[in-house]
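To close the section, here is one more complete example, presented without commentary so you can practise reading it yourself. The ligand is zinc ion.
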Amino acid sequence: MSETTAAFCPPFCPRKRCKQHTSKTGFRWVRYGTYATQGSTTRIQRYRCLHCRRTFSATAFTNTYYAKRPELLIPLGHRMLACSGFRQMAREMRCAASTLMRQAARIGRQGLLWMASMLPQGPIEGPLVVDGFESFSYSQYHPCYVNIAVGGESHHTYAFTFSPLRRKGRMTKHQRRRRARIEAKHGRPDPKAIERGTAALLRITCSSPQAIVIRSDDHQAYPRAFRTLKHLDITHEMTPSVQARTSGNPLFPVNLVDGLIRHNSANHKRETIAFSKHAQGLIERVAWLLVWRNCCKPFSENHGGGTPAMRAGLTEHQMTVEGLLEWRLFPKRTALPEEWQGYYDRREHAPGTHKARPHRLKNAY
Ligand SMILES: [Zn+2]
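Output:
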């Protein structure tokens, strides 16, 4: 937002109940005075919608709307991609970790809306590579899969979904007893979570009927998930998961995304204490990372080649963190898939874990 906000022309009414909120053209408004915030000399322009007669200011269109520390948003957006924990960032930025967590949730929601706005409207070209990134939130008794769909040629990540899993693998007697206690109290996670998560992932990615080649590893949930998708004519190419994870592996595009998530996110480092304390934190951070990877990071660090979103024909230019966070995207103006609406409202959680505070648009229309 520029310091002289009077030059700004509101493109639509920011109030979600107003008919002019979703209109593309013809929004009519008038200027309605200015105000100055405490400690600032710049005056902020107010406007009045000529349809609902309510007033609003230019800041309603920014991601720092109602933020007490708006200057933290952009540095936080960068730091979330640079493997820092919230307390580490808070020490540097001289604020409470909880302030950053709330702004990180905002950034994650903006990331989800960017991903939704870039979902292909028609058939997708080229093969799609599908895999699950394994991590956990809350405790190691609550592992999860982040199911990911990546373009085989473009490396653009079209979508992701979240599947809470049951803890498996080698456990001590004590650990087994503890898992049994947790499951007796909160119930077992859905054994078909990966199947359901993968089916939802592909419904989001390929919403219209088409023939498509999908590459995945030999996880048995994938063929079952594909059979439920009647609108797709799927050719399934399987690669054993034990095959070397080199650039020659057909699953390389998705292995690379897995590597980037682990490399850039403090919450997914092995043996970290910065793990996500609830599923929503994990989801929001993944959404932001994937948008940045799609829109800002070049295909190759050494040779350029455009961003994955440019290669998929979804954007024309390379974007920046500042550009992604400058203007607020509104959920009612961006069609969110059903699963993502739950992520946006902060309703997702694994059984027996902390629930995130739900996102209700209180002061933000
Ligand atoms: Zn209005």
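Once you have examined the tokens, check your reading against these statements. DSSP finds eleven helices and eight strands in the chain. The two ends are 19 Å apart (CA to CA).
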